[in-house]
User: Fold this.
Amino acid sequence: MGFYEMLVRSHIPFEVVDECNVQDGSISKYDVLILPTCACMSRETAAGIRNFVGEGGKVLATFDTGFYDEKGRCLGKPRLDDVFGIQKADGTVEYETPGTGFQRIQKDSWMARGLSADLIPSPSLAVRFTPSSGTQIPGVYLRPMESRYVALPTDGFPAIAVHRYGKGAGVYIGGTAGEFYYSSTNPDYRCLVANIVNRFSSEILKTDAPGSVEMVLRHQEDKGRYILHVINMTGEMARPIERILPVQDIHVTLHLDKTVHGANWITAVEDSDRCEFSCQDGTVQLTIPVVKEYEVIILE
Assistant:
């Protein structure tokens, strides 16, 4: 759920895949494969991922991904150590008390773009690993502090590994990044993941809508059209949500592989309510006047 929240709030389109998609090669149509704490993995699935990355795909994984076989038996080394540039895993480190664990992201790294600081909180659990030769380490975890009000440690261990493999690349985050975001909603984690995904994928959708507005783009091949679902979950900063607050004047840019000749907002009842639309060389520009709870825009 943590990665779902980060991707949705960053307006990054995605689909959910399983082992069958990996093994039959149908993931080849994607730019990036994300494996959030996918601990158990068969040889066949690992081979499918290795082939995907070798042919130019990118994979992002966290924590103990591939550390166990499909029956939950601990492996001597991770299934995808060669993809992520991991020489060996040396156990886990626990940050038991909030505020006693931090990670430092290199200021000059593309991963640091948009972060509030180069020092951000560590998740509650992290794998201590040794990188192989040629692996880039743009982030490190500092060792756990004895308490909150002590000097920051100067020593630590790798937090993030970036490694070229074949025509593609693997990015490994040693900590439980998804779980940490789901429990704390730390915006720097969302920014970090968005930086990684956007670095290795082509942009499809861009919008100035708040993160509480989800956008889902679907392609109906048989009808030759795209459908943009806009789901507004903007509330009053309390749970449960008692009232949805309308969001006005949302701008959306879509980079599509087909020319769009018209945009119909199926809930519009007056001409003044229709969304502004333009398309040039496959780039669609939309302005949605208002989104209440849910809107659907058909692009033909």
Observations:
- The mean pLDDT is 94.
- The chain has two domains: 2-199, 205-299.
